[in-house]
Amino acid sequence: MRTAETVLTVLLLAGVAALVAGQALGYPVLLGFVETGSMSPEMEAGDGFIAVPSFLTGSPSVGDVVVFEAEEVQDGGLVTHRIVGETDEGYVTKGDANPFTDQDGGEPYVTEDAVLSEALAVGGNVVTVPRLGMAVETVRGAVAGLLAFVGIGTAAGTQISGVVLFVFGVVLLVAASLDSRRGAKERSRNRSRKRESVMDARLVLIALVALVLLPANIVMVGGTGVQELTTTGAVEGEETGETVDREVTVRNDGFVAMLVVLEPRDGAEVSQRVVELPAGETATVTATTPAPEQNVERTDRIHEYRYFLLLPASFVESLHSTAPVLALAAVNGVLLTGVAGLVVGLLGYGKVRIRETERRTPYTRRLRNLL
Question: Which of 102, 109, 281, 346 stands the most exposed, by the fewest C-beta atoms within 10 Å?
Answer without folding.
Answer: 346
